[in-house]
Amino acid sequence: MASECDSFKPFEFDSTLKLLSDSSTLKAVPSKFNLTNDRTAFTSDSLPTIDFSALVGCDPHQRSKAVHHLATACQDWGFFILVNHGVPERLMSEMFREMVEFFSLADSEKKQYEAKSASDPIKCGNFNVANTSNQSFTLWREYLKLYEYTQMIRVLTRKLIEAVCEALELNQRRYPDQAIGIPPHTDHGLFTFLIHNGVAGLQIEHDGKWFNADSPKNSILVNAADQLEIFTNGRCKSVKHRAVVNEEKDRISIVVANGPSGEAVIGPAAALVEKDGRAKYRAMKYEEYVESQLTKSRIGGKSILEQQIIFPAN
């Protein structure tokens, strides 16, 4: 018997997207890309800004304030703008140049990196999704994913996790070591870092409304991800976000996801479970969580994160 996921191909390479995007005669988007999505969003200047230099600085008063602001940002918004992070502007610019060069390659060259599973170290292509009626749609985007060690971002992640643990009074030594663009979703992992080429398009959900998440040049937009929400027993929020297309310019974003070891089983921290009187999320091996998110999610259905929530017994 075929499973419900047999027709779901998240790594299928579709060469028609670039041809359509480059076409000067395109008058209508083909139906396979027409996944209904409301693009309206509010503009907000309330998105928190975190000064990384204060988090790692020698001034205890400034560091205490930064830790508090970080914890509040993760609890209230689930997103924040990271400034004074130490990643050179030159390095960011070089990364975008490399991305433009890759996406400009002929389809025959890119297709050799088409992945067959979530564990493949290099993969590129398009992303197909299905709704709860099992209708399949192709997202209007092309991606390249690499599994590699990014030293600077890893340092930023560790310092942010240490600060969150400090704010929640957790043992820092123990816990850190454990036709739309993209529809509404949350990210797996602990923190996700994003920079873009100056073309806005990311929107985040806050208090039931959608807001444009515009970040200044040379800053990094950071969001708390699913495993951080699970680990903090719901204190930090992995909020839904989406990307919308731009009719005039190509939007290029570079995203670095940070998570635990694939073999790690992530559940709520024991100290927080004791404080709350119960675990609010099920524990799950990280690599299984990632695979489930990539192959079993359905637009309009429950997300993998929502499926991990444990509701109190009546």
List the helices and strands and how they pair.
Layout: H1 16-22, E1 42-43, E2 49-51, H2 52-55, H3 60-76, E3 79-83, H4 89-103, H5 107-110, E4 122-125, E5 128-130, E6 136-138, E7 143-146, H6 151-167, E8 182-185, E9 191-196, E10 202-206, E11 209-212, E12 220-224, H7 226-231, E13 241-243, E14 253-258, E15 265-266, H8 270-276, E16 284-285, H9 286-296, H10 304-307
Parallel strand pairs: 1-11, 2-3
Antiparallel strand pairs: 3-12, 4-7, 5-6, 8-13, 9-12, 9-14, 10-11, 10-13, 15-16
Provide a brief overview of the structure.
With 314 residues, the protein is α+β, with helices and mostly antiparallel strands. It has helices at 16-22, 52-55, 60-76, 89-103, 107-110, 151-167, 226-231, 270-276, 286-296, 304-307, and strands spanning 42-43, 49-51, 79-83, 122-125, 128-130, 136-138, 143-146, 182-185, 191-196, 202-206, 209-212, 220-224, 241-243, 253-258, 265-266, 284-285. The strands form five sheets. A five-stranded mixed sheet has the order 1-11-10-13-8, with no helix packed on it.
Describe this structure in words.
This protein is α+β, with helices and mostly antiparallel strands. The chain has a single domain (43-307), classed as B-lactam Antibiotic, Isopenicillin N Synthase, Chain (Jelly Rolls). The protein contains ten helices and 16 strands. Strands 1-11-10-13-8 form a five-stranded mixed sheet, with no helix packed on it. The chain starts with 15 loop residues before the first helix and ends in a 7-residue tail after the last helix. Residues 166-260 form the Fe2OG dioxygenase domain. InterPro entries: DIOX_N, IPNS-like_FE2OG_OXY, IPNS-like_sf, Iron_ascorbate_oxido_reductase, Oxoglu/Fe-dep_dioxygenase_dom. Belongs to the iron/ascorbate-dependent oxidoreductase family.
